[in-house]
């Protein structure tokens, strides 16, 4: 199945190679390339499961006035849309946009419930359950960041978590400044001002998406 991918994505781990063609055909799998900034899917479009073969996408929710809330990102080997497919939704409630040039394997999420029982289908469902559980944990963590009262507290909480995840005070985040502000639900100008204060206080250094924390805070 190298016409679809070279490295097995997490959603297909443990499925026998001989079973993949039939399974992928049942899910209407097809591969597509996207440019930076291009929309993969809009809110209201047909429900899909997107598997990132390369690049990175951002999952965004917009209100009627165009205010954006970044739900999360997905990079190579990761996927999006699986929760909506498992919930039986026929339409995507969010938009998905490429923040890097990307190669995707697209699956028809509306076909997920129609798969015939088989060992491959069982393993697919097990993989989906594990992926959904991991994303539930990430959502709980994001809610913890968002629950902080001030922009400074949200920043320190998020950056501290990233440092712990990287196992180092030096790390790179998957957002640019505007995307980070959207993710944390703060104004970009206010966030930039707080980053400036944190630099002057000697707590951190930052350049674009790279950070270095110099001292532990109460958030660490």
UniProtKB/TrEMBL annotation:
Residues 149-217 form the HTH crp-type domain. It comes from the Bacteria. Signal peptide: none annotated. InterPro entries: cNMP-bd_dom (IPR000595), cNMP-bd_dom_sf (IPR018490), HTH_CRP (IPR012318), RmlC-like_jellyroll (IPR014710), WH_DNA-bd_sf (IPR036390). Keywords: DNA-binding, Transcription, Transcription regulation. SUPFAM superfamilies: cAMP-binding domain-like, Winged helix' DNA-binding domain. Transmembrane segments: none annotated. Residues 11-82 form the Cyclic nucleotide-binding domain. This is Crp/Fnr family transcriptional regulator. It comes from Yanshouia hominis. The lineage of its organism: Bacteria, Bacillati, Bacillota, Clostridia, Eubacteriales.
């Amino acid at each position: 199945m190298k016409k679809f991918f070279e490295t097995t994505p997490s959603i297909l781990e443990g499925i026998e190679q001989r079973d993949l063609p039939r399974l992928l055909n049942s899910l209407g799998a097809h591969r597509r390339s996207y440019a930076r900034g291009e929309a993969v899917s809009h809110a209201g479009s047909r429900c899909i499961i997107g598997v990132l073969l390369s690049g990175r996408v951002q999952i965004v929710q917009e209100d009627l006035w165009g205010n954006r809330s970044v739900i999360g990102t997905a990079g190579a080997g990761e996927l999006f849309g699986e929760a909506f497919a498992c919930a039986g939704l026929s339409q995507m409630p969010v938009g998905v946009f490429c923040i890097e040039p990307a190669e995707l394997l697209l699956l028809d999420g509306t076909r997920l419930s129609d798969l015939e029982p088989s060992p491959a289908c069982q393993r697919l469902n097990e993989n989906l359950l594990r992926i959904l559980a991991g994303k539930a944990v990430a959502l709980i963590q994001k809610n913890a960041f968002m629950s902080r009262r001030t922009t400074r507290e949200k920043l320190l909480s998020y950056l501290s978590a990233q440092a712990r995840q990287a196992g180092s005070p030096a790390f790179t985040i998957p957002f640019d400044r505007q995307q980070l502000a959207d993710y944390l639900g703060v104004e970009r100008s206010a966030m930039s001002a707080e980053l400036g204060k944190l630099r002057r206080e000697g707590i951190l250094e930052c350049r674009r998406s790279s950070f270095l924390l110099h001292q532990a805070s109460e958030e660490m």
